[in-house]
Amino acid sequence: MYQTDLCFIANAAAEKEEENDHFLRSLRARDDKELDAMAHAVNKDVSSGIDCTACGNCCKSLVINVTHEEVKLLADHLQLSQGLTKERYIEESLAGNCFINTIPCHFLADNKCTIYERRFTECRDFPHLHKPGFKARLSGTLMHYGRCPIIYNVIEEMKRELGFLQPSLP
Description:
By secondary structure, the protein is mainly alpha-helical. Helix content is 52%, strand content 7%.
């Protein structure tokens, strides 16, 4: 029912870059609450029809930000000191921001998260389509359109529901 082939999605993203830019601009005049309601409903349908564990592409290709509290919780879960946990799994920027120090994520095995019950907030919330502010975040969401089957299918379904047609190009 939904497109999940990562090669197809990556190729479609390249082909539809200009179309998606027009789509983004076409939403400027639309009501934020209506767009949020639509995005949430479409996301609910699409997410229930796509098995993330059959993909895992987000864990294979994204930098995963982690809070200091999550580093502590990870250390506790792994039964390691915070220092050793940071040494093995976490990098900290000069600004003090933490993130997983490898891509793909250390905790991905067979497309499944080995710390799923303790996974990080950013992982838990990705692709963030359930949150308010869809229109404000759409530019960032489109950055992942070619890598996440859920995002790809939600955007394509919203285009259909909104009657969006790519403008004729000269």
